[in-house]
Amino acid sequence: MTLTAEARALDLAQTYLETIREGSLDAPGVTRASYGPGERLSHRLAREAAEGLGLEVHVDPIGTLFMTLPGADRSLPAGMIGSHADSVPHGGNFDGAAGVAMGLAVAARLRHLGRRLPRDLTVLAIRAEEMVWFPANYLGSRAAFGLLSPEAPDTLRRSDTGRTLADHMAEEGFEPDFIRQGRASLSAERIAWFLEPHIEQGPVLVEAGLPAAIVTGIRGSLRHRNCRAIGQDAHAGGAPRRSRRDAVIAAARLVAGLDEFWTAEEAAGTDLVCTIGEFFTDATRHAPTRVPGEVRFTLDIRSEDVAALHRAEAWLRGAAAEAKARHGVEVDFGPALHVPPALMDQRLRAALGAAAAEAGVATMAMASGGGHDCATFAGQGVASAMLFIRNDGGSHNPQEAMEMDDFAAAFRIAAGAVERFG
């Protein structure tokens, strides 16, 4: 029996995902380090699949893989679809790679149907998105746009080896000088639109019983990595309440207050998430009989709404003043890392919605809490969109569990939308 164009495309995607999993197994999950063997395998297999489809294949000097299905007017800016192919250590198989597989499947369907889009369609496999390897957000996509500092190849070191980005790039056959010289292989003027399919990294679609979601935007963030509540050590039995400068009480009150602030914002319809990922006293000094003089903690506050992030920042300043007045405890939040939100293009979102309706696939709108290469494209003024695929078990762990039926549903949306994007 002859397979349909859709079935052949989905078979290609499934084969790609299964093969890269087998080649990058690192119990209990998979490991595809940025500029390492697993990422190399993923790119090689994507290239082989693209060449099997007759796509034009090009690799830029930093390793970005471009796989292009020619369009009717090759002078037009290209449409692009894809994601990254690296993973976290001992992670799941689908974070990033599902987007590369989706891009290949969409191109395969068009090829098997003999259809040409008005413009080129380029499937991207992007390098080095996972920040766990090198301490830089969206390293691969930012490098492709020429946004990294010239010093990055020689100052960024990979977490597992301690060796520089330049060393690892050269080892993989790429050119660190491309970054040092501020060159770029991607230009916003030559990109009509960018679509990044990606597994959802939380439980929302599982809870909603839906296979896919149309992303409204990628949340911006306000992050403080080195927060300190500084009081004074005291004897647990000898110091009365009135004379204590208890850092734990002050920090705990601040955390509870932040939760109340979050609750109120959420009740008002604000998109907001707040996380205290670390909260601890000094293990070399703390004791059951000592009033703690210092607490260290982290803050990660995210929202699609810039105004909400500003309100959170103002609330933190007020909370620090209250800690000083009420408990005699200084709160030093340390350096702040501000990452602006990246809102998705309304026209592309509408096209995804229309394609979902035509395919009979129920979806929902939702924000992306995690960062993605799509934020780099949007930040450069490229019309950008994201499509989430239901995934049980969360992300960045071996329990990632995207079902191919859900991938197929999202594929029908992506395929229909790409033809609508124009």
Automatic annotation (TrEMBL):
Q: Does the keyword Metal-binding apply?
A: yes
Domain named Peptidase M20 dimerisation is located at 226-324
Q: Name one Pfam family in it.
A: Peptidase_M20
Q: Does the keyword Transmembrane helix apply?
A: no
Molecular function (GO) terms listed? hydrolase activity
**Subunit-level organization:** Homodimer.
Q: What's the protein here called?
A: Hydantoinase/carbamoylase family amidase
